[in-house]
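Blackboard transcription, Thursday session:
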Amino acid sequence: MIIQMEAKAGEKQLERLVERLGNDGFPPEMLDISRGDTFILVGLKGDTRAIDEGAYRALDYVLDVIRISDPCKELTRDFHPRPSIIRLGSGLRIGKDLAVIAGPCAIESRDQLMKTAKLVVDAGANILRGGAFKPRTIHRSFQGLREDGLKLLAEAREKFGIPVITEIMDARDIHLFVEYDIDIWQVGARNCLNYTLLDALAEMKNPKPVVLKRGDHVSISEFLGAALRLYDGNTKVILCERGDKTVDPVYRNVLNLNNVAWLKKRYHLPVLVDPSHGTGVRQIVPDMALAGIAAGADGLMVEVHHKPEEALCDGAQSLSADFKKLTPLVRQVFELRRQAKML
Amino acid sequence: MIIQMEAKAGEKQLERLVERLGNDGFPPEMLDISRGDTFILVGLKGDTRAIDEGAYRALDYVLDVIRISDPCKELTRDFHPRPSIIRLGSGLRIGKDLAVIAGPCAIESRDQLMKTAKLVVDAGANILRGGAFKPRTIHRSFQGLREDGLKLLAEAREKFGIPVITEIMDARDIHLFVEYDIDIWQVGARNCLNYTLLDALAEMKNPKPVVLKRGDHVSISEFLGAALRLYDGNTKVILCERGDKTVDPVYRNVLNLNNVAWLKKRYHLPVLVDPSHGTGVRQIVPDMALAGIAAGADGLMVEVHHKPEEALCDGAQSLSADFKKLTPLVRQVFELRRQAKML
Amino acid sequence: MIIQMEAKAGEKQLERLVERLGNDGFPPEMLDISRGDTFILVGLKGDTRAIDEGAYRALDYVLDVIRISDPCKELTRDFHPRPSIIRLGSGLRIGKDLAVIAGPCAIESRDQLMKTAKLVVDAGANILRGGAFKPRTIHRSFQGLREDGLKLLAEAREKFGIPVITEIMDARDIHLFVEYDIDIWQVGARNCLNYTLLDALAEMKNPKPVVLKRGDHVSISEFLGAALRLYDGNTKVILCERGDKTVDPVYRNVLNLNNVAWLKKRYHLPVLVDPSHGTGVRQIVPDMALAGIAAGADGLMVEVHHKPEEALCDGAQSLSADFKKLTPLVRQVFELRRQAKML
Amino acid sequence: MIIQMEAKAGEKQLERLVERLGNDGFPPEMLDISRGDTFILVGLKGDTRAIDEGAYRALDYVLDVIRISDPCKELTRDFHPRPSIIRLGSGLRIGKDLAVIAGPCAIESRDQLMKTAKLVVDAGANILRGGAFKPRTIHRSFQGLREDGLKLLAEAREKFGIPVITEIMDARDIHLFVEYDIDIWQVGARNCLNYTLLDALAEMKNPKPVVLKRGDHVSISEFLGAALRLYDGNTKVILCERGDKTVDPVYRNVLNLNNVAWLKKRYHLPVLVDPSHGTGVRQIVPDMALAGIAAGADGLMVEVHHKPEEALCDGAQSLSADFKKLTPLVRQVFELRRQAKML
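(Written on the board underneath:)
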């Protein structure tokens, strides 16, 4: 961290700053002071994460406070050079093997879930998704089957031998997720910065892997800050990129693949990509799935429905009515991943 | 709602659509069907809020589904022509009298809060704010005094006879807010779409007024959807505009005053404006406070600290060290409001 | 400018950097070098505007290059403490007197322009606007009356004794603007970064005042960079804020009043605000006009049409059919400006 | 196009609308009128591109005007089902063969360009880029070698037998581009909506292929509108995606690959991707190049410099000092393209 003061501040102001830094745990020997004609620069050595930049910006003569080191050091490749690998009970190693998560936006009925699960397994996907608790903008819309949905997921897992993922929206539902032994817990985009929920998950004993979806316009540093909250209590954190709202009416969101490339390059957590929410346009979901894998993603999360025209939510984002498109897509992403490893 | 189909769809597809609409509660007599050369347009009469657009978009030959009526009808001026007025115990009528909420970002100590409260009251503000629970990006930063903060707020209220507002982040803290009889409960920007929290607040008996801050890049329709969740159980909902992240590094956020003007013009809930978070630049907070009032806002929420250079968070956004600027600002906003009423 | 190197870079790399800085005009005596455990910071003293940051960022071991001083120093209040005032032939002093520019988006006919001009003058506005050359997204739409439009504007000026402003899109039209002696030349938002056009305008002898509209998502530093290109040859530059595209479908653009407050606080050029394009929603144009003035703007630019339902472009943004709303708005903005001066 | 009126408008208002539509070339037989309880919907049959939506939105009782058909019909796959292929003199078929355009941001000297050109050719790229005219934010920065740059490009083309591309910023330079017989003319992002320049290029006899880069936050419809201006006079138009500014300080821009997938799916023009400007982060340029090809792009445009640490602009975005990374990247993109064709 560098604090930039106006040179005209004078020694008295500088002393005051140095004293204050001392109170915040940075005695003079942890400071680099450089006096120039225009600016005085004070560099801080050591872990500055607990320092509140704003408090220093508010000081007279302070022009700027510049953070240099990464406040989420534990998540960087410097700290943990190799990619983290998260093993599921099924043997799948997320971060190493390609994860293909598919399933309906919302679980609507046993029949729907079992049919979809069969199609998902047959297509070659290796994790089944399905929403039991649904955050909907208009609260009088369908909100999910809730506990019954979890029960159906558990049933599908037994029947098809495939791990399952579903979204947790409320810390008060943790016991249900434990009861039905959900394999991967998802924190949705709207709750990306819901610190209450993240902290409750981080405090669990024997936690399961958690997929954290990036919220709308959440920056890389906010996203990693949220991930670190989880990681402190549960290292099995998987990131998921799902796009930002856009000024262009063509899309629901625009997938930010810069994030996938950057998170993989600099940090060690596995990264998934959700081309369904990241576009909101069914026709380009397969292209963007491939693009995500090419950018370095460790897997996909796609919405599918055995009859999208009857889906109770997000039908336009589902892949296809008859799954004719899921099978070739899964084949393609595995092939692309295999080749990417060789490139 | 209008469903737009390709004309080449043919009668069979149209029948299928009509049948499906019937199942969703829209029999043929509630439909307007218009056949053109290129498109068939099906208009739905009645309350279409429970209809899932996505499901219809996924049907073959359906090109688009266009919502026309406002899903948050109860919040519109059509439904409730006069502005809602929310009375506090102090007699202040939010939505009619100008509300000026001021205080520190975070409550740090009794001394700090009492000093600030005195300055706030002397300056002419009529509601005291202070954060007890703080959502911070990096979780190892200072997270607030929590219950002790609520206790101090209650003490300040007694001492200065001023209502208090503070942020609730977790439904599990509701009993504390009840215990200390917090006058106005704030839902922060990060929790704007935290439906779990909103629903818990909506279910309360004898609820207090709630200020709902717009989250980053949350659209008007999402914001109203969240407000309606609260409103269904508690009509004392106050909206607050606090800006969006921006591509321009000059600001922390950009205040969206279009929203203030539009929300006041079309909806009946009171609207506040937060120029501190809406800029992140101390020098322009007063200008943007005035601009917010000129755009139609019913009040302000500003951060102040008796010594901003010692604030533990958000110091750069606080108004001034010695409150020299708060008093003239309060005088100006009251004057502007008075004149605006006469203009 | 501060160049931040990794401490592990070693003296050799540092020497190489210092040598390179010497070649770029920064000999060792213009550098402040501060060696820390983690970083080496090299501060540059003097005018660094010609330095290319990217070239230094590309050097091995360089982590960041941080610009501190304003590359548009001539436009700051440090350089020119009082607001610039631009006098028109009519005696109006832009930057001191409130400028109210009103008129149709496009000039359509003599009848339309003269009727509108009369209404504009009667309502109390002091500059007449009207588009002669129109940049339209779809090029087969109406593109403006071109030279005939300029002729009509000149005619309206003579008839009503009011200065006129219109947009120049092409350096090849400069002679026409000179011929019809257009009082204020506007560079539109799409051409904000069209350096060819800006440079051509800057090279003129005896130039007229130029209004430069901020382009979509153009940052403050890009905007000032464009303004400085003009200012180097013509100090009579007036800035105009007109909003950015938005993710919210309610608006065409969102007016960024942070920019108005910031530009007025830190820089000396006059700043106008365009609430018509900055919203795209007729109902809130008056509110946003007032908000703009409250934020510190020196004037307004609003679209009006004597019969908006017949306007050939941008009708939804025009103020009203019968100008009933323009007269009270002009009265209000003058009243607000008067009071703002006294506040 | 559908015009939505309130049902309470009454027959008189509807007649007025119908009459007005008649004047605009839509007699009653080209209208579909559907009367509902809440709304009257008027559908227009035929080519509505010349209709000004705003004028209709401004009418009393009109709530909305909804465009349905694509105003850039000629660019769609409906109109031209197969991808357009643009042949260069070198035999390269853009839209069919993978185009790999590489070279320095700015041409700085003969030595630099010739060395870079050799490396580019050796690495397997098939088009050489280099900026002769440079749009720089701060106009006192290096602005390019101008005509001398074009001359050097022509020399490099002769020497290495590789077609060249460079940016045209001013219609007054057209004769120079003709004189040096530049193979592909680039319109840069800042000039994407500079209609003066686009129209001048469209009017040329025997035009060369033009690459049109998408400007910051330019929407798909604006981008296609600009492309159509060119296409009307010169069908050899190539689109290039290069990202938008972002709220995240990590990147200079975020590449929008949704656009690549969508433009390829729905329109027939070739689409390139520029991962250098689309990220501004050297480390992820190769990943995003691959992602762009996977999303369907017909080629790449990447910045390289034989010694990036000495580049006069955009060094941080250049690929590498010694080109060690260009050769494997070119190999990878060709391999990915080959496989994508087989997937």
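Lecturer's comment: The CA atoms of residues 223 and 258 of chain B lie 14 Å apart.
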